[in-house]
Amino acid sequence: MIAPGGRLTGRIRVPGDKSICHRALLLGALATGETHITNFLESADCLATLAALQELGVKMERAESSAVTIQGLGFEGLRSPVRELNCGNSGTSMRLLTGLLAGQPFESVLTGDASLHRRPMLRIIEPLLRMGAVIKSTSGHAPLTVHGQRPLKPLRYAMPLASAQVKSSLLFAGLQAEGETWIKEPATTRDHTERMLGSFGCAVLRDGEWFGIYGGRALRAADVTVPGDLSSAAFFMVAAAAQPGAHLIVEGVGINPSRNGVLRLLWDMGADIRLLHEHMLGNEPVADVEVHGGELRGLDIGPEMVPLAIDELPALLIAAALAQGVTTLRGAAELRVKESDRLQAMAMGLRTLGVELQLWDDGLRVTGGNGFQGGEVDSFGDHRIAMAFAMAGLRAHSPIHIRDCRNVDTSFPGFAGLARNAGLPIEVSERLPP
């Protein structure tokens, strides 16, 4: 339950970036030598990737200080798993592991929870089949049975839709191909994999709109320090920006330009957000994000911005409901095949809280400026929906109750406690884990 009347103030630090942690685990496993990851996010999603790699024979040590040490096995050191690889709720785990396993000469089965089994997997299966892997699915959905091949065939592939997970899956397969693999995106997506490949000794090739890698070349171990997750920081940034009198600093946040759409869109809405102490952490740009609360204005969010803010759009829809005027979101049909149908989930919750809106197949039209009524909303087991509506409580006229929040830990363990310390009047029950 979120009570009205709070105000976000002070300095906070959000957990490590989930996307970077997944990739560091996978590249560390494929490299030769010892990889150290600091500020590792001990979320359910990242731990699913870690456990799957352990099933594949990778030795890891975890320290209490959110650090992981990986004894890399190289491309030929992984072993056939004796049981299914359970990816839980993590689409990133399943898609990236499928690309990795496509080049391994044994059979693996990847499974997950009911939500993950509803997510589309043909987008990775079809290009991986062209590379020589044999992958069986249930009508394009998990569980996936992967019969890997060594070496894989190189690929030249123009992706039909923008997806960092698909791109990264193909890059992991391309590392194990005989020759050069080339990819072209229809729109820019987060480039954490490309940046990290350089740290592990793999040069990324560029030719106009195409980028590629050489297959079959050994990776070398690297140390990875993970910045704070911008997607996690976004909930606090949005809530503070839309609350007059709020003043919040989120320390050490990754501001990678391939995924900083939430910052750009908030600036377009008139948010007073400043980047302090900008620097590089490895190959990733990092800053402290300072937010002064005020009034926001509506805007049009077009398809070109969707890949740059795909995970932050639920939070941005809370900002839209508080902004003066109308906000439109188009080209966001991908939100319907996330952990939940996020367009439908946000529309239902916003209507419950008294927000006027129109729902389309690929977006929403939100009329903002009136704050929120109280009520009970359903997160549909989706961590980002739950956290978005938790922040709505700061501008609600009466309490907001959020149902089915068990999956918050998939991306942001400790969310409720951090939010409470920052000034959100959150009352924890079985609905929202501390």
Structure, explained:
Residues 430-434 have low confidence and may be disordered. It contains 13 helices and 22 strands. It has helices spanning 18-30, 44-55, 91-101, 114-117, 122-130, 164-174, 192-199, 230-241, 261-268, 313-322, 342-352, 383-392, 415-422; strands spanning 9-12, 32-38, 59-63, 67-73, 85-86, 107-111, 134-138, 141-147, 156-158, 180-184, 205-207, 210-214, 223-225, 247-254, 272-281, 284-292, 300-301, 325-329, 356-360, 363-368, 375-378, 400-403. It folds into two domains: 9-15 and 227-422, Alpha-beta prism (UDP-n-acetylglucosamine1-carboxyvinyl-transferase, Chain); 18-225, Alpha-beta prism (UDP-n-acetylglucosamine1-carboxyvinyl-transferase, Chain). α3 packs parallel to α6. The protein is globular and about 60 Å long. The protein is an alpha/beta fold and 434 residues long.
